[in-house]
Specification:
CATH topology of the largest domain: Rossmann fold
GO molecular function: UDP-glucosyltransferase activity
Helix content: 40-55%
CATH class of the largest domain: Alpha Beta
Bound molecules: uridine-5'-diphosphate
Radius of gyration: 22 Å
Coiled coil: 414-441
Pfam families: UDPGT
Keywords: Coiled coil, Glycosyltransferase, Transferase
Oligomer: single chain
CATH superfamily of the largest domain: Glycogen Phosphorylase B
Organism: Psophocarpus tetragonolobus
Length: 472
């Protein structure tokens, strides 16, 4: 078996940072662990963030490489924005593909332009959009069956038709491409439809009906291979994922070690979210009033502020951090946190999350129930999966889908934050039991013979069949 699969060579072309790059790197590592030769194509600046991780894999015998392209995208806090133009990478990519024709290339949807060059060269192109099956199915059905422009208001609820669960949404929660269909081309959908298939970071058991929907869609190939974050088995791998953490390990670890099991709320809004100072203050007041232990990773949120504001720290209520420190109630961190390690700590009781799909899967795989605070992308739809289908989270009450980098239309007030934390605490035990069962299913899915394991093998098999057919 090993000798046959060794002959399969896969390229992975992740987006330039954040929540799209991290899971694709893990996916490349998963395939390498199944005997494939995986090459991750990256910009020179970005490659630095995961070089150590890949070197460790190589030292452990995996056939995995990084190819740094000859063009670069400056590595700034903004470089992972979905709107960053990456077409400067086109020629170096074409050159690399001409010289090294792999059996397939997995391409992130934000590198939409790469579709044509891959197609011209006759290489199997596999689509990756970073989300699960549930939003795909929900959005397809809204697109086809709901006249959202005819709803009475942004807040008039409607049920999503043709889905096995009762999902109620409002127009205010929908991504702009679903609200204003005329203004958006179907380019991403076309890219997906013209591809060899789709690799999905999810696992069958978390969303079986929706996974079936994906597998049946246009008779298309869909391989569900996650949660890919579970390939990070050592503390080292969990620490250096995406970026090297900038928060002091001894500080957070000692602090968490001093807390009882299931007592601390982890608060993070992912790698990109930018919340204005007014909203940050409401979070701080809400957390303080809820009397809940917490670790709050503010991270990139601060990038929305002017340097002067950042330095003056006036985005937090006066004396907040000192009070939290003295009472031992909370820690506020600026920068990049080792999220997988924190979520895996026994003291963590819950995760206040923006419902990014990676954070959602990481929370689920760690057996941690959630407080959901969606902001953009497909996060409002993920919230429905978490709170209404799986019943492993409570909603903070965020209502407005926000286009990336635009101004918040309405704040979630401190009362709502406090109330959500208190409601969460009342329901945490029941939710924890449910999410731990799902976490166990996730663990089994990626082990030998599990659903995700088998889908990885199935894709390798399909690529071998294609290769053989092309040789005839
Ligand atoms: N992440 C992290 N440390 C941070 C912030 C984010 O490790 O301080 C990781 C997190 O574990 C996840 C990814 O960044 O894998 C964020 O992806 P997600 O889909 O949740 O949200 P996005 O950043 O794309 O909005």
């Amino acid at each position: 078996m090993a000798t046959v699969t060794r002959s399969i060579e896969m390229f992975f072309f992740p987006f330039v940072g954040g929540g799209h790059q991290i899971p694709m790197i893990d996916t490349a590592r998963v395939f390498a662990s199944h005997g494939v030769t995986s090459t991750i194509i990256a910009t020179p600046s970005n490659a630095l963030h995961f070089q150590n991780l890949i070197t460790r894999d190589q030292n452990n015998g995996l056939s995995i490489f990084i190819h740094a392209l000859s063009a670069d995208i400056p590595d700034t806090d903004m470089s992972a924005s979905p709107f960053i133009d990456t077409t400067v990478l086109l020629e170096p990519l074409r050159q690399f593909l001409l010289e090294n024709r792999p059996d397939c290339i997995v391409v992130d949807m934000f590198h939409g332009w790469a579709g044509d060059v891959v197609f011209e060269l006759g290489i199997a192109r596999i689509f990756f959009n970073g989300s699960g099956c549930f939003p795909h199915c929900v959005h397809d059905n809204i697109r086809s069956h709901v006249a959202v422009e005819n709803l009475g208001s942004d807040y008039e609820p409607f049920f999503v038709p043709n889905v096995p669960d009762r999902i109620e949404m409002t127009r205010s929660q929908l991504p702009v491409f679903l609200r204003n269909r005329a203004a958006f081309s179907d380019r991403v959908r076309q890219l997906e439809e013209k591809s060899f298939g789709t690799v999905i970071n999810s696992f069958y058991e978390i969303e079986p009906a929706y996974a079936d929907y994906m597998k049946n869609k246009w008779g298309k190939r869909a391989w569900i291979v996650g949660p890919v974050s579970l390939c990070n088995r050592t503390a080292e791998d969990k620490t250096e994922r995406g970026k090297t953490p900038t928060i002091d390990e001894q500080k957070w670890l000692n602090w968490l070690n001093s807390k009882k099991p299931n007592s601390v709320l982890y608060v993070s809004f992912g790698s990109l979210a930018r919340l204005p100072p007014e909203q940050l203050k409401e979070i701080a007041f809400g957390l303080e009033a809820s009397d809940q232990f917490f670790i709050w990773v503010v991270g990139n949120v601060l990038n929305s502020l002017e340097t002067k504001e950042k330095e003056s720290e006036n985005w937090l209520p006066e004396g907040f951090e000192e009070r939290m420190k003295e009472s031992g109630k909370g820690l506020v961190f600026r920068g990049w946190a080792p999220q997988l390690l924190i979520l895996g700590h026994a003291a963590i009781k819950g995760f206040m999350t923006h419902c990014g799909w990676n954070s959602t899967l990481e929370g689920v795989s760690s057996g941690v129930p959630m407080i959901t605070w969606p902001l953009t992308a497909e996060q409002f739809t993920n919230e429905k999966l978490i709170t209404e289908v799986l019943k492993i989270g409570v909603q903070v009450g965020s209502r407005e889908w926000l286009s990336w980098n635009s101004e918040l239309k309405e704040f979630v007030g401190r009362e709502k934050v406090e109330l959500a934390v208190r409601r969460f605490s009342e329901e945490a035990e029941k939710m924890r039991k449910r999410v731990r069962d799902i976490a166990e299913q996730a663990r089994i899915a990626v082990e030998k013979g599990g659903t995700s394991y088998n889908d990885v093998e199935a894709l390798i098999h399909d690529l071998k069949a294609r290769k053989l057919a092309n040789q005839d």
